[in-house]
Amino acid sequence: MPEHKIKLSWHRTGSEFAPLSYNRNHVIGFKGGQRVLFSAAPENGGDPAWADPEEALVASVSSCHMLAFLAAAAGEGFTVDDYHDKALGVIGNDDRGRVTVTEILLRPTVHFGGTTTPNAAQIAKLHELARQRSIIGNSIVARVKIDDQSAVSAAA
What we know:
The chain is of the alpha+beta class and about 160 residues long. The protein contains two helices and eight strands. The strands form three sheets. It has a three-stranded antiparallel sheet, with no helix packed on it. It has a three-stranded mixed sheet with strand order 5-6-8, with helices on one face. Strands 4-7 form a two-stranded antiparallel sheet. The longest helix is centred in the middle third of the chain and has 23 residues, at about 55-75. The termini are far apart.
């Protein structure tokens, strides 16, 4: 099985290291040299201009679902022209009282081209195949839901 490695770097920037004052900004490096600026969520003292880990989790679930959806659509002979998602991650308490991402709502809008466009039932099947094949979605305990009404087929 493949392994996935990142490099995370954080450095103290001020003279004080106290609960409300330390810098939360850090850099995560990915293969190929891409570097992404991360911080804590703003409500946890982070920089709102930088991505936070909770956003990255939602983005990972959305991205992985999209990639699995595209593979399923191609496998079923459908042509996807574009795919957009306005995913939402919900923070709350789990059944043990711990703060967690309790739910991720995917709200994709998919436009199909080609000579054969799927109907609503076929689109739902593609999303179900994507849900089953999503490595990230299968790796988390948060419930992943799909707003099927936004998965509209519109031939060009």
